[in-house]
Design brief:
By secondary structure, the protein is mainly beta. The strands form 3 sheets. It has a 4-stranded mixed β-sheet with strand order 3-2-10-11, with no helix packed on it. The chain starts with a strand and ends with a strand.
Length: 115
């Protein structure tokens, strides 16, 4: 069993608040869904997205389904620019804490390896 774990959160930088109710999928290197979760009122998940025996080194993807959130929270002229945002990353050490946040606005986003 590893000591490492993966967390994420979503901040809406367009309004300066956490983004709640965003569905998130975690996929392994083969594109298989290994976890599904949703952000809470603080823009975070209630528990790590990946931990314990399932937390292994390898390539992963987080897919944030942001279309409904953007449509509900922002006054947009057209449909939201983003439907979903996919972030691909590599876990190289299964004893570390990996944090992959999403900073979201209606027409742009950013991510980084957080702590």
């Amino acid at each position: 069993m590893s000591d490492g774990f993966l967390t994420t959160h979503v901040l809406d930088i367009g309004v300066g608040k956490p983004a709640a109710a965003i569905p998130i999928k975690l996929l392994n290197k083969d594109g298989q869904i290994i976890q599904e979760t949703i952000t809470n009122a603080d823009g975070r998940t209630d528990s790590p997205v990946l931990s314990g025996i399932a937390f292994e080194a390898g390539k992963y993807s987080l897919i944030f389904n942001v279309k409904k959130y953007l449509k509900d929270k922002h006054e947009l002229v057209d449909e939201p620019f983003y439907d979903q945002i996919k972030i691909e990353f590599i876990i190289s050490n299964n004893s570390d804490h990996y944090h992959v946040p999403l900073l979201l606005s209606p027409y742009g986003y950013s991510t980084y390896r957080g702590s």
